[in-house]
From TrEMBL, chains A, B:
The keyword Transferase applies. Keywords: Magnesium, Metal-binding, Transferase. This is Polyprenyl synthetase family protein. Its cofactor is Mg(2+). Belongs to the FPP/GGPP synthase family. It comes from Oleiharenicola lentus. GO terms for molecular function: metal ion binding; prenyltransferase activity. One of its GO terms (biological process) is isoprenoid biosynthetic process.
Length: 343, 343
């Protein structure tokens, strides 16, 4: 049985061919050792958060963008990967407080395990330690990039939090939110990888742009998956965005394309936290060609991402970044045709 | 009517003689300009937090420790002062979420004004921006010091949060908590001031030690004031620590010195969030000499602080730091004699 490479689930699905397996293993070891860097009183709590091994998507961007022929494990790339991953983990700890989430990656969230008050502070400690690792580079540039990036990620999250159940969110607002909350750290990961490995002049900026558009594509894909749900349990995730009143691209397009009275009913339902009939929604999405339109948006972003590294096709990192974009593209193509194919 | 110089209330009470008035004015201008550094979407919220001008205690430590003959306004000291103040403001934003506080400095807390979810993220953005300012120094050293300090401050806060209503907290635990949550940023402020102004060799370490012990003294004083309350409204603050079950030195000594049955009653009352009779508590404190013992602890710390800078009496910063310790000492001496004089 063949398993299609995937951006989701399992260990290191971003590296289906094991190209950066030694780098990801070095990262795991580095992250594990980080727990000891926290004060003894919070070491176990910090360790709990660091253990939760996710998709390692941002570290993979660092390693791929910083790839050199020979593929040696570069200590500075491992450190940069740890920085972006720890920033990401810190945002997850705080996100889970806001979402009142019970579980993440099959384990209790920090907020549920240690209480929301401790989780606020624990997230802060993770942020601080991420910046502390960043400050161990000889120049302050990594700190400068990562601190600004972190601030922008938080700004995006604040926008999203404040605009929940706000049905006046425009496509430009949505774009700006995902630019900040997701694409920002993607692009910084790519830039850091390219910069620290001293790639060809101009490649770092190209990788930055690649990361930016890959990040937007990824977030739209993530929002689509959340909306159309998983194949086996299609209703499970549909409720999530509707219940929290989070306006994402599929939902915005749906609201935009249905008749006025249907729109009013759907908004009223969402305001009260009711999910509309799932089968109906999916059918409407298909009838109105929304899944296909969302897929088109994702592919448009992937095209811009790929275009940006086109002039650097001889850079060792280029084919790996290209493969990463293809991986997401294949993932998108494997979504249920009933949802994403044109009506 | 003369107003005694004070660590509390009014603008810049830490500088009653106006020695660092130009520096504090430059800091105010710098902080005000910082709002524009945040993303447009959160600029007003960040500005709201930055406007809340507090005692500027940590910036004063930077300026005093970095004082040079002539007293010019050094841009790097202003920047360092802004970093420690912004870290402090970020911790306050998060503290107020945990304490469910309504007001701070006479205005709604960020948590009340923008909601606790947004306040979590806003605090994160303030932390990030503090580190971003730190990263604008030519070397990564300021970032390195401040990120580690921030992590330790958070660790102290976590300890305190997790040990609320834990009546097994020992004096060593209390000491460790205030070391981390308060003394840490005091000592970093002093170290940064001395380091950035290139004072005499060895002075930065001495200033660090001074700041550490001044910070402990200040926190014990703050806990004493919170316990004995203000002269005019002595009951107002007594309830605070009791209600949140926060064990501070005065309370620990009281619990330690009262008879077993009285202790059991007091603990039961606190567990249920009842304040014991105030008059009784104060009388007991006086009878048992607790106020006097706490004052002794504060003065002991101030002595160690002063001792640490004794070898540097010719350093321009030394008399200013000495004056700052005297200021706290006078403040302590002005507490109601019914509370702090020996029984």
């Amino acid at each position: 049985m063949s398993v299609a490479p995937s951006f989701q689930a399992n260990a290191h699905p971003v590296d289906p061919f094991g190209i950066i397996a030694p780098q990801l293993a070095a990262l795991d070891a580095f992250m594990k050792a980080q727990a000891a860097q926290f004060e003894p009183e919070i070491r176990d709590m910090a360790g709990y958060c660091l253990e939760a091994s996710g998709k390692r998507l941002r570290p993979a961007l660092v390693f791929f963008s910083g790839w050199e022929f020979g593929g040696r494990v570069d200590e500075s790339l491992v450190r940069a990967a740890a920085v972006v991953e720890m920033v990401h983990l810190a945002t997850l700890v705080h996100d889970d407080i806001m979402d009142r989430a019970e579980l993440r990656r099959g384990r209790l969230t920090a907020s549920r395990k240690f209480g929301p008050d401790a989780a606020v502070l624990l997230g802060d400690a993770l942020f601080s330690q991420a910046l502390h690792i960043a400050s161990q580079f000889p120049t302050a540039e990594v700190c400068r990039l990562v601190s600004a990036s972190t601030r922008r990620v938080c700004s995006g999250e604040i926008m999203q939090t404040l605009r929940r159940r706000d049905f006046n969110v425009t496509l430009a607002d949505y774009r700006r939110m995902i630019d900040l909350k997701t694409a920002e750290l993607f692009r910084t990961s790519c830039y850091l990888g390219a910069m620290l490995s001293h790639q060809t002049s101009g490649f770092a900026d190209a990788a930055d742009k690649f990361g930016h558009h890959l990040g937007i594509a990824y977030q739209i894909y993530d929002d689509l998956v959340d909306f159309v749900g998983e194949e086996k349990n299609i209703g499970k995730t549909l409720g999530t965005d509707l219940a929290t009143g989070k306006l994402t691209l599929p939902l915005m397009l749906l609201l935009d394309r249905i008749p006025v009275d249907e729109r009013a009913r759907l908004i009223a339902d969402m305001r009260e936290g009711h999910s509309p009939g799932l089968a109906t929604s999916q059918q409407r999405m298909h009838q109105l060609g929304i899944g296909a339109a969302v897929v088109q948006s994702i592919n448009d972003e992937l095209s811009i991402a790929l275009e940006s590294i086109l002039p650097f096709s001889s850079a060792p990192a280029a084919p790996l970044l290209k493969e990463l974009a293809s991986l997401l593209s294949r993932q998108v193509a494997s979504l249920p045709t009933s949802v994403v194919s044109p009506a």
